[in-house]
Amino acid sequence: LTEDGSPEDYRELRDYIRSFTGSIPLFVTPGNHDSKEALREGWLGEAASGAPFSYTAELGDCLLLSLDSSSQGVPDGHLTEESLRWLRETLELHRNRPVILMTHHHLIPGQAEVRGLPEWQELKEALSGSSVSLILCGHTHHQHEGRFAGILCETAAGLSFCGEGQPDGTVEFSEVYGYNLYTLQEGKL
Hints:
The protein is α/β, with parallel strands linked by helices. Helices cover 24% and strands 20% of the residues. The chain has a 6-stranded mixed β-sheet with strand order 1-2-3-4-6-5, with helices on one face. Strands 7-8 form a two-stranded antiparallel sheet. The longest helix has 15 residues, at 7-21. The chain starts with 6 loop residues before the first helix and ends in a 15-residue tail after the last strand.
């Protein structure tokens, strides 16, 4: 959402997005440059905390489950055992309900030059047999569609830039803007 932003940056971003979306619910998940403390304080108006920013939200007939894979300054992200336990317990609690999972880091190995979430195998095991019907993620800033653990997995385009890996190991950035728009009707994408 921001590049090492302050609480005020998150407030301004939230208010700016709200100027276009009005009362439409907004659900966010932090990325590798986000500060959970500043996000909680600025976006939510809560006390600053570095605790995982994972939560559930009602989304029509579905449950939105936001799984925090961010670790500020760690590009590949990280899922703690605490976060994986929370995910397993939450999925068990809602096993008879369609669930949409949202996380920052992409999950499909080889999807991009940027490495995916290191704990992708543990996540795959946690999702096996669950009622998750769609996974939404980002991180690469490139739109991609595939399957993860047999579940449709959509990686959103970036709102700011995209990067292409270079042969010398550096990344070349260019301004590219995009977004993905999904419509849910009767629990189906």
